[in-house]
Every structure is written in C-alpha cells, then in structure tokens.
Design goal:
single chain, 112 residues, alpha/beta, 4-stranded parallel sheet, 18% strand, globular
C-alpha cells in the first residue's frame, strides 16, 4: 500500500499534472492499493472531477484507490453528483469522545 497526499484547491489546469503523478506512482511501484489524503481539498467540481479521473487511472492499472480525510462538504458534493458508490471516500475522523475538556463535561451536566 502506498500513500499520496493531494492538496487543494485543485484547478482544472492541475489535472494533467496530478494525473501524470498518480500514473507514474502506479507504474513504478505497482501497489495494489493507494490511499490518497484529501483533507485540504476544497469541495468543488474540479476536485470531484480530479478524484474521479484518478480513480479511473488506478482501475486501468489494476489498483484500488481510496480517498481519506474528505470534508463534509466534499462528501456532500460527491453524493450530490451521484459518485458516492464509485469513489471510495472516507470522511475526516471525528474527535474521540474521551477528548472532552473539563469545561465541556461541566456544561454537559447542565451548569453554566
């Protein structure tokens, strides 16, 4: 498994370079799975287009491409565009419940 970080925003002019970079990774390393970190990618049509193109490139190389760290907005746009099933996108992990502060715990007991 290989990791790749994609930073945003992604402009339409960035697509050929991004596509070439991922294809080079797939050809040189031949991984079965590539995980792309998309935490900083903005939710717009160019970003979803890029993710779909990268997924297609990976499939052509016999590789599975997973995206992780997507914002709620990016996940919503992918769903709106009907691509949730085609793109394996994981959301940004939620904060652990144990990470509550003393102030938050005190407020949750009904005190202000």
């Amino acid at each position: 498994m290989r990791d790749l970080v994609i930073r945003g925003p992604i402009e339409p002019a960035d697509l050929p370079g991004l596509f070439a970079r991922v294809c080079a990774l797939l050809q040189s390393a031949g991984p079965d799975v590539v995980c792309c970190e998309v935490t900083g990618v903005t939710a717009d049509a160019a970003a979803v287009d890029a993710l779909a193109r990268l997924r297609l490139a990976a499939a052509r190389h016999g590789c599975e491409l997973r995206f992780r760290g997507a914002s709620r907005e990016l996940l919503s746009l992918i769903a709106f565009m009907g691509l949730s099933g085609a793109l394996a996108v994981e959301p940004i992990p939620a904060a652990a419940p144990a990470a509550r502060t003393a102030e938050t715990a005190w407020r949750s007991r009904g005190r202000k």
